[in-house]
Write a structure and sequence with these properties.
190 residues; alpha/beta
């Protein structure tokens, strides 16, 4: 259970089930048993380029992705310049995204997601891609969301990042919660 406004980190070895948990929360995966209840607008940053069409330009993909994230077309159009500015992709925004690097896709995806006014952000290692300045900018935005009382669920292997931003960390082992608690208590087990 994750409370509204809580920032929770999920850690574990590759294949432990971290990304699966985010996929379940984003409702892109269905549970084989049990139930998942999510209340609020979710901004999933699960996979670079997810929801993007490779032949469309960056600008066209902003409109497409914004609508897929639950925004009205009018809302996306009102924020498109702000999204482009945050992504720092002004020079490439009219090129098809098949020409974008993974870092550029991460910039675009993160920029759209944060501008959809989410109640819940699901972040899966996306911030590991891109240059240091943009990673810092993304973390500052996540701190801002945290201050606004937004819920953030973050999968990362960056212990320093998790220790700084998370209220709680869950260690996943073989698809199950192995440990759950304050970052300083759980991170040493990883």
């Amino acid at each position: 259970e994750i409370s509204s406004g809580e920032t929770v980190g999920i850690i574990g070895k590759n294949g432990a089930g971290k990304s699966t948990i985010l996929g379940l929360l984003a409702k892109v995966l269905k549970p084989t048993s049990g139930q998942i209840s999510v209340k609020g607008r979710v901004a999933p940053l699960l996979e670079l380029g997810a929801g993007f069409h490779p032949e469309l330009s960056g600008r066209q993909n902003i409109l497409l992705n914004g609508v897929l994230l639950g925004m009205l077309k009018r809302e996306v159009e009102e924020k498109v310049d702000e999204i482009i500015s945050f992504s720092e992709l002004e020079d490439f925004i009219y090129q098809p995204i098949r020409t974008y690097s993974s870092g550029m896709l991460a910039r675009l995806g993160f920029s759209v997601a944060i501008h959809c006014n989410p109640d819940i952000m699901l972040v899966d290692e996306v911030l590991a891609v891109g240059d240091q300045d943009f990673q810092k900018k993304c973390m500052e935005k996540m701190y801002f969301f945290k201050q606004l009382g937004k819920t953030i669920v973050l999968v990362s292997h960056n212990m320093e990042e998790l220790n700084k931003v998370c209220d709680r960390v869950i260690l996943i082992k073989d698809g199950y919660s192995s440990k759950d608690g304050k970052p300083e208590d759980i991170l040493p087990f990883y």
